[in-house]
Amino acid sequence: MNTKLLLVAAAAAFATASCSQEKKTETTETTAVPGGEQTTTTTTTTVDTAAYRTSADELANQVAADLKASDAAIKTRLQNAYYTRGRALRDLDTQYAADTAGRYAALKAVNDRTTSEVKTIVDPAQYKTYTNSQGTYYSGPYTATVITTTTTAKPSLGARVGQGSGIKKLENDDDDRKVKYNNGAKIKRSDDGSVKIKRADGTKIKIDEDGNRTVKKGLF
User: For all residues of the chain together, what is the average pLDDT?
Assistant: First the structure.
């Protein structure tokens, strides 16, 4: 009797350990049949969460090494991000099995969401390194990358008119401010907001206080 009890206890313990590695989901479908009756079908699906966790851990270790991130908390957060991504990709395979365009867009959204989450985990320098190597971490479309914008300041009016020749003379009175350049160009600004410009080639430009522009070309 004692031997039988021990065998039963061991079997129960093994079943409990196995369930801890898997997650079961149930899907219930109700179907109407002639006569107004309904039939209910319940399908139980086992999801191997351990496989997704292993894959996530491996990728997190690789990324942490590439980014030289030794903090255990960072690695843990990366593992969770990649685990969530792996589960999301599994759902895509089922949801968009016959919809290539829809799957592409959904895959892009998952990858972008993962990259955005990584941005909150690592520092800016590490994130830049990460986005430059995304193709080695996971395949598929992604757009959440570092974008460097270069803004070129528009040259000032004086720089354009003087053409780098330097200022020859400055004149200021109560109403006007005049600048003469070594290349022969001149700018006159009045207190009412109007501007008169004479370029080195003789072209004269007048901009009144309302912003209206008049141009008179030089003879040569």
Answer: 76
